[in-house]
Amino acid sequence: MRPWRSTSASPSRPAPRSASRSCRAAPWSRRTPCSSLAEKKASPQGNTLAGRLARLGLKTDADFVLHLPLRYEDETRITALADARPGVAAQFEVEVTDCEVAYRPRRQLIARVRDAGGALSLRFLNFYPSQQKVLQPGTRLRIFGEVHEGYLGPEIIHPRFHPVAAGASLPEGLTPVYPTTAGLGQATLRRLIEKALARVDLSDTLAPDLLRRLDLPGIAESIRFLHNPPPEMAQAVLEARDFPAWRRVQFDELLAQQLSLRRAYTARRARGAPRLRGTAQLTDALLASLPFRLTGAQQRAWREIAADLGQPHPMQRLLQGDVGSGKTVVAALAMLHAVEAGHQAALMAPTEILAEQHYRKLATWLQPLGLEVAWLTGSLKKRDKEAAIARVGAGDTAIAIGTHALIEDKVEFARLGLAIVDEQHRFGVRQRLALKDKGSFAHQLAMSATPIPRTLAMSYYADLDVSVLDELPPGRSPVTTKLVAEARRSEVLRRVHEACRAGGQAYWVCPLIEESENLQLKTAEETYARLAVELPDLKVGLVHGRLKAADKAAVMAAFVRNEIQVLVATTVIEVGVDVPNASLMVIEHAERFGLAQLHQLRGRVGRGAAQSACILLYAQPLGELARARLKAIFETNDGFEIAREDLRLRGPGEFIGARQSGMPLLRYADLEDAALVERARAVAEDMLRDAPERAAAHLQRWLGGREELLKA
């Protein structure tokens, strides 16, 4: 963490959930470059002022005025050092008595200060020569920070400070603190925001009668209020964000989202698309050959998809279902329907393991029907890849399965009619658009194993038609989940040994290490070596993301053949892996995983007739959030219930992987507020019908050119 500079604060901690999901500000209706930055150009490293601002998405006046405070500080009063309370931020006026650079226990700058009733130390673990020059004995300072008891006595680490003259006036209102980045101080941000507020056009896009009906204030007064709250406004009320000005900003943001999604939906329906009218010859043949019958949910989803494919506009449907609900067979029916109509179909998956799983399953089903299934990934040998591309381009291959390789420029389809994207939130928008654009307005089906709660369906997915697989195929045994402390690891090893000696197999998932892929790989290799020693009579295998595709495929094939009894893995097995004989899963350091990840991993077992179990090994002590996640995964196997809890714990931005999804993150609105989402949805429909010019202005204000991202 950088130290506080002498004139400004640089908080590096994230904003509260409703404000921290993105520091990017939306454009206002006039994209006026900030004049104070016009002559500055960002270096490739972003080390100039303009570069630092660009990291926050701050380029225009509109960006600045919508860069709202994440909290406020009370600099309207001076607190005596004698009245300082540990852990409570306050402002003090002091005089420097001494300043020195100390070298034990590490190099640091220490300044000693006092007022009439007390003294304390200011400690800087990282400091600049300019700070040392300011902190000279006799200098009067105003400092802001939290007092803690340190090894030198009372101290503030990295306070914000600036020199003042005796009797200098105090601010009349609370001081806003903005989301920032390294090297960009609060004083600089405040100055630029104040200049932008003086120039920007804050005319309202909502009609006065609508504001009265919604009981919302004007946008201009709301924005100015949030940047400069009145002195009488309590700090606690401001930071609770439950007052009219915040409600206006939240509503406007939700409204922009709803307008975008509705416009995208309408625009897609206005385009032409090939009517895919199948003969039912291939689909009936597949259904007759399957060793199982479709569930009621699968039949319903298939009917919905078939109806969409027969329309003269592109299908844009999301097929969502819990782990093991049978999405692949529904996708296979859709692909056959496209082939019956004389078109090609493509399925793109985010990982080679998942893509290969689809390829093997679909080839088993479709090749007996006389169809060639192409396999296209980046790891294919050049000759094989070129041959597959040529056959797809000539139309000799009706169905293609692969990874990102499907969207390379040289891949061309003869008549692509249906594009399917599995685990669609794992792809960026440009990638999803690239696959769909391989065909002239091809129909698109997205699949997700993450059930979507209702409020998200109304917002992030409001432009999609949704089919839900809400029942599991018969014969799947429920998975028993057990929570086991790390201290009882030996008991878990015995359980693994017994299960494998009885003919079963087990997964051992290594801990998730967000900070370092290299460290995660090292942990996986160490776990593999340790288990090979602890389970000497079992064959232990290892699979991770850094393995070459051929090596990964060889390990997985050996596991499928039961030549490997215990598979040590990272989260590359999170989706798509289907080994019915594997009935036991151990997840090490389960407290490090997200709730959705734990549910996906657990779904790798329970695919055969044997009773299956998932053991969550956790290290103590558990934090509050980790405890809540483990409690939720222990108490239910219901993916929709888990999804609701995951949304509650993480917030919508993280829940849908929004940084990958392309949907602009909601910075201020809360999707758990279903009533406000519903209101924004209704207003969006009215505006698009009755006031399209206001709708366009509102969209330009909040999204600008980024509205295109919603069309994937």
In short:
With 712 residues, this protein is an alpha/beta fold.
Q: Which class of the largest domain in CATH terms?
A: Alpha Beta
Distance between the termini: 38 Å
Strand content: 15-25%
CATH fold descriptor of the largest domain? Rossmann fold
In CATH, what is the homologous superfamily of the largest domain?
P-loop containing nucleotide triphosphate hydrolases
| Major sheet: arrangement of strands | 6-7-4-3-2-5-8
Helical proportion, percent range: 25-40%
Number of strands: 22
Sheet with the most strands, sense and barrel status: 7 strands, mixed
User: Low-confidence stretches at least 5 residues in length (pLDDT < 50)?
Assistant: 1-45, 655-664
Known CATH architecture of the largest domain: 3-Layer(aba) Sandwich
Number of distinct helices: 26
Keywords:
26 helices, 22 strands, seven-stranded mixed sheet, 712 residues, single chain, alpha/beta, seven-stranded parallel sheet, OB fold (Dihydrolipoamide Acetyltransferase, E2P), Rossmann fold
Can you put this structure into words, describing what you see?
This protein has 712 residues and is of the alpha/beta class. It folds into four domains: 121 residues, no CATH class; 94 residues, Nucleic acid-binding proteins (OB fold (Dihydrolipoamide Acetyltransferase, E2P), Beta Barrel); 189 residues, 3-Layer(aba) Sandwich (Rossmann fold), CATH 3.40.50; 158 residues, P-loop containing nucleotide triphosphate hydrolases (Rossmann fold), CATH 3.40.50.300. Helices cover 39% and strands 17% of the residues. The chain is built from 26 helices and 22 strands. A seven-stranded mixed beta sheet has the order 6-7-4-3-2-5-8, with no helix packed on it. A seven-stranded parallel beta sheet has the order 12-13-11-14-15-10-16, sandwiched between helices. Strand 6 and strand 7 form a beta hairpin. Helix 7 crosses helix 9, helix 9 crosses helix 25 and helix 10 packs antiparallel against helix 12. The N terminus is likely disordered.
